Amino acid sequence: MSKKVLIVGGGLAGTIIANGLCRHIGTELRRGDVSITMLGTTDTHMYQPGLLYVPFGKIRERELFRPQRKVLDKRVIFHIDPATNIDVDNKKVTCKSGAVHEYDYLVIATGSRLMPQNIPGMQEGAHWLYDLEGARKMRDALDKFEGGKIVVNVNAPHKCPVAPLEITFMLKEYLEGKGLWDKSEITYTYPIGRLHALEPVAEWAKPAMDADGIKYETFFNTKEVDPAGKTISSEEGVTLDYDLLVTIPPHAGAEVITDSGLGDGGWVPTNKTKLLREGSTDVFVCGDTTNIPISKAGSTAHFEADTVIDNLASLLTEGRWARDYDGKVFCFVETGMKTGTYVWFDYKTPPNPGAPSQMIHWFKLAYNRLYWLSARGLL
User: How many CA atoms lie within 13 A of 69 on its CB side?
Assistant: First the structure.
């Protein structure tokens, strides 16, 4: 009987896994021994890291999108039908249409979502770049900005953990370019007692912000935003005035995860090396959906996906495991409009950001163009 691989989620992680499996088990797919089905929520695939450039007008919106069907291997059965219930006991997934899909192996890659509504006043008073609508509004606000106080406010949990640093350094150079820096100031807030969750990154960022004249406020856990008074306050009792508030809203996992009882907050308890749901032997979890203590980033999803592909292909063809995920992450970091650095790390090796350079910035811009090869599982 044919083995059924069911992938819930059509973002980067799910797409890489679907395409990668097609390459690894082409013979089994051709013989009908295995089928691969994906359940997505939209017919469009978005390059999310490209949103960083939208507020500055550095990328055209159409460059961010491709039809999901064209990104996927033709052998993948693709349904635009959001999952509403995942029943891991009976190996079934129910969709919004009422359709029920059975599986032998399940991949959960349902991603994360923005939750600005969790903080009073944030939706009305803040700008963000983590979705297209927010990035457009931030672009419009920057076009009208004539100088003043900008607060870059970071909340947890959130994906793409270097993006708040990138937007801060890019904002500073953007204001310099418009001749507004001498009548502006930027204050960066972070919820713990340093500037980034990864201590080496925080130690790198502090002197960089000092050199740029960027202020910071740590131990700032956002309590509320007052859009009328243009203030943002923390649970620790600090209130900051702003003329423009840029926030990284708190995130949560997908509703289907909580509705199915698979994990608080939408994060699925996951074995950090096998990438299996805790308590399951046939349910893989990949990307933002996991609860493993590592960055929720596209790079993380990519390296996790490669591990899931190897293990699923090995299990389907040889009945054995191939390898463990070692926690590898590699992220470019924009440090301005024309310079960048990078961080890489794994479970055993801490990150060690290097000196920024224009060449690394160019590498990041080149990767923006190569992303679609990654999504197709070719890079």
Answer: 5
